[in-house]
């Protein structure tokens, strides 16, 4: 049995360490800079987005234990850019509550199967599902009970449409089952939904929960295209979403920021996925709210009482800007220039060294000051057309 290694109880060089160096870590570092909090980032390359805003960089794969140990030696608290962490290795360290959220609370959320098991255990609404291994053991009659299309999802590493496959027929299913090299997948019933909603919130060490507005997200090819806030959602549905969020974070004694994606349709509100981190659907909060999702996470993990969350405007529009083909006629520089010229634009460039098709390169946010919901929707669609004329979606 491995002996846990003690971390010396001494004053460290940096208040916060971030495991990961992508765009979420970049925006966390930016929020920390505003608060005057020093951050150290562990990431593969010094060219990764967060490095430009970090006070110090440990150039090491975030999944490598040695790099994790070096980060912990330097930092008072450790936070996570994403849930792709090796908890079994981090558990070898006597953390003395160094991780936010704690490893125990994030454990059920690091892969899709453990998430589904948590949701099932808590009797929360979610599409029917089975681990691939169990699905393979069904007889023909039991398989007939699953209507096509169905979804197959990878247990780990799925994001932005990656790790998802739509299975349209029994032939497609047989082909997938023959090609699958591991059982690290789950089968999920197809959901015909009317809307996709998302709710992001925070929970601090005192157990206080704060919420951003429920938003509506719009996808293309399983990738978020744009986000409208606040969503037009009735009081009962909003309350149900809030209660689901509160139940999960309280059950896990989770401290930090979390996002939950929902389907809504004839079967009511269903949990799609849980993200134990900051989330794309709340990027609007940087401009639109009194405290962004990144500020909430930085405050909580640094021991600062998080501000209450209020919107500065009646609404907002956030649009993702994904990488285009090499031969796209407008250069990145020209696209950035034209987008910046649109009235009211707030462009967040992630500073990635290479543009590839579908890669998240930036996002742009607009505040919507129309008091009427329908007027806000009209304005959002006008702006969306302007943005997409300059920077189209590669999934269109």
Rg over CA atoms: 21 Å
- Note the beta-strand portion: 25-35%
State the end-to-end distance.
53 Å
Shape: globular
CATH topology of the largest domain: D-amino Acid Aminotransferase, Chain A, domain 1
Proportion in helices: 25-40%
Classify the secondary structure makeup into a structural class: alpha+beta
Largest sheet: 9 strands, antiparallel
The unreliable regions are: 1-8
What is the name of the CATH superfamily of the largest domain? ATP-grasp fold, B domain
Mean residue pLDDT = 94
CATH architecture of the largest domain: 2-Layer Sandwich
The number of strands is 20
CATH class division of the largest domain: Alpha Beta
Q: Count helical runs.
A: 13
Number of domains: 3
Describe this structure in words.
By secondary structure, the chain is an alpha+beta fold. It folds into three domains: 5-100, Rossmann fold, CATH 3.40.50.20; 128-189, ATP-grasp fold, A domain (Dna Ligase, domain 1, 2-Layer Sandwich), CATH 3.30.1490.20; 193-390, D-amino Acid Aminotransferase, Chain A, domain 1. Helices cover 30% and strands 28% of the residues. It has 13 helices and 20 strands. The strands form four sheets. Strands 12, 13, 14, 15, 16, 17, 18, 19 and 20 form a nine-stranded antiparallel beta sheet that branches. The protein has a five-stranded parallel beta sheet with strand order 4-3-2-5-7, with helices on both faces. A hairpin with a 2-residue loop joins strand 14 (215-220) and strand 15. Helix 1 packs across helix 11. 39% of the residues are buried.
């Amino acid at each position: 049995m491995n002996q846990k290694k003690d971390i010396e109880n001494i004053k460290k060089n940096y208040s916060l360490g971030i495991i990961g160096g992508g765009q979420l870590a970049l925006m966390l570092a930016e929020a920390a800079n505003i608060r005057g909090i020093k951050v150290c980032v562990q990431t593969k390359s010094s060219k990764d987005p967060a490095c430009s805003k970090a006070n110090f960089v440990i150039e090491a794969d975030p999944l490598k234990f040695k790099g994790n140990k070096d980060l912990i030696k330097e930092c008072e608290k450790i936070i996570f850019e994403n849930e792709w962490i090796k908890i079994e290795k981090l558990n070898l360290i006597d953390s003395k509550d160094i991780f936010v959220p704690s490893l125990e609370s994030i454990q059920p959320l690091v892969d899709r199967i453990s998430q589904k098991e948590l949701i099932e255990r808590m009797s929360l609404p979610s599409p029917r599902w089975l681990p691939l291994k169990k699905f393979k053991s069904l007889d023909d009659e039991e398989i007939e009970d699953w209507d096509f299309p169905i979804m197959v999802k990878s247990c780990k590493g799925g994001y932005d449409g990656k790790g998802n496959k739509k299975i349209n027929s029994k032939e497609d299913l047989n082909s997938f089952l023959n090609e699958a090299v591991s059982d690290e997948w789950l089968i999920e019933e197809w959901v015909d939904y009317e809307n996709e909603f998302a709710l992001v919130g925070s929970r601090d060490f005192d157990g206080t929960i704060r919420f951003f507005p429920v938003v509506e997200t719009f996808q293309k090819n399983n990738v978020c295209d744009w986000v409208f806030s606040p969503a037009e959602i009735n009081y009962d549905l909003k309350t149900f979403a809030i209660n689901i969020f509160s139940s999960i974070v309280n059950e896990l004694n989770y401290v930090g920021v979390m996002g939950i994606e929902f389907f809504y349709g004839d079967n009511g509100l269903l949990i799609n996925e849980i993200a134990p981190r900051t989330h794309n659907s709340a990027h609007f909060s940087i401009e639109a709210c009194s405290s962004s999702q990144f500020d909430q996470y930085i405050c909580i993990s640094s021991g600062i009482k998080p501000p209450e969350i209020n919107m500065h405007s009646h609404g907002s529009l956030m649009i993702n800007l994904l990488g285009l083909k090499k031969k796209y006629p407008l250069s990145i520089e020209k696209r950035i220039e034209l987008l910046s010229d649109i009235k009211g634009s707030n462009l967040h460039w992630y500073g990635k060294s290479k543009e590839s098709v579908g890669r998240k390169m930036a996002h742009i946010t607009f505040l919507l000051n129309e008091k009427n919901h329908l007027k806000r929707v009209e304005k959002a669609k006008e702006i969306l057309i302007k943005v997409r004329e300059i920077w189209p979606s590669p999934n269109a």
